[in-house]
Design goal:
The complex is a heterodimer of chains A (106) and B (112).
Chain A: E1 4-7, E2 10-13, E3 19-25, E4 33-38, E5 45-49, E6 53-54, E7 62-67, E8 70-75, E9 85-90, E10 96-97, E11 101-105
Chain B: E1 3-7, E2 11-12, E3 18-25, E4 34-39, E5 46-51, E6 57-59, E7 67-72, E8 77-82, E9 91-97, E10 101-102, E11 106-110
Parallel strand pairs in B: 2-11
Antiparallel strand pairs in B: 1-3, 3-8, 4-5, 4-9, 5-6, 7-8, 9-10, 9-11
Classes of the chains: A mainly beta (106), B mainly beta (112).
């Protein structure tokens, strides 16, 4: 089974900051990596699919990059509505989620 | 309108079997996969298993011995059955179409 190691677990930032969240796979996942945002009491929402493709309707301040085993979600300028929990998901071999990053207001 | 909605008991006793139903609308189960994903309170997401458009299934290896996913295409429903429940199975259970469109989730508590 493919394991996903997501970091950091918690991130404290301010509105306007640039933040990055990382996911490392236990083996090459061939860019089959999605990013999700989850707010309290809601289902996750897909932001990015296949490493760097922005889901329709998602603001362009969200971007993704990576290859092989290492992937990154970047939020270029944090907005108040971005404070939430973020998960990565590999879908190269079945599905495995990262443990999540809780993004909090500093 | 494309939707998924989970239903099932909110409380299950330890060692018993959990049965959940995901009723979908707006799309065909014969053209889309449906996965079950769960989330213990305050914790992360765990993919449990999927039923593919052709009807075959795959399961998380950690749950495979206890889990069964099936469907009734005529009723647009997907079913989850998991036996030998323990307190650590307490979670919100979601069904999702291709890990893109999600149901609202159903909270299941395992307790005597």
């Amino acid at each position: 089974d493919i394991q996903m190691t997501q970091s950091p677990s918690f991130l404290s930032a301010s509105v306007g900051d640039r933040v990055t969240i990382n996911c490392k796979a236990s083996q090459n996942i061939n860019k089959y990596l999605n990013w999700y945002q989850q707010k309290l009491g809601e289902a996750p929402k897909r932001l990015i699919y296949n490493t760097n493709n922005l889901q329709t309707g998602i603001p362009s301040r969200f971007s993704g990059s990576g290859s092989g085993t290492d992937y990154t979600l970047t939020i270029s300028s944090l907005q108040p509505e971005d404070f939430a929990t973020y998960f990565c998901l590999q879908h190269n071999s079945f599905y495995t989620f990262g443990a999540g990053t809780k993004l909090e207001l500093k | 309108q494309v939707q998924l909605k989970e239903s099932g008991p909110g409380l299950v006793q330890p060692s018993q079997t959990l049965s959940l139903t995901c009723t979908v609308s707006g799309f065909s189960l014969t053209s889309n996969s449906v996965s079950w994903v769960r989330q213990p309170p305050g914790k992360g997401l765990e993919w449990m298993g999927a039923i593919w458009s052709g009807g075959s299934t795959d399961y998380n290896s950690a749950l495979k011995s206890r889990l069964s996913i099936s469907r009734d295409t005529s009723k647009s429903q997907v079913f989850l059955k998991m036996n030998s429940l323990q307190t650590e199975d307490t979670a919100i259970y979601f069904c999702t179409r291709r890990i893109l469109l999600w149901g609202q989730g159903v909270m299941v508590t395992v307790s005597s």
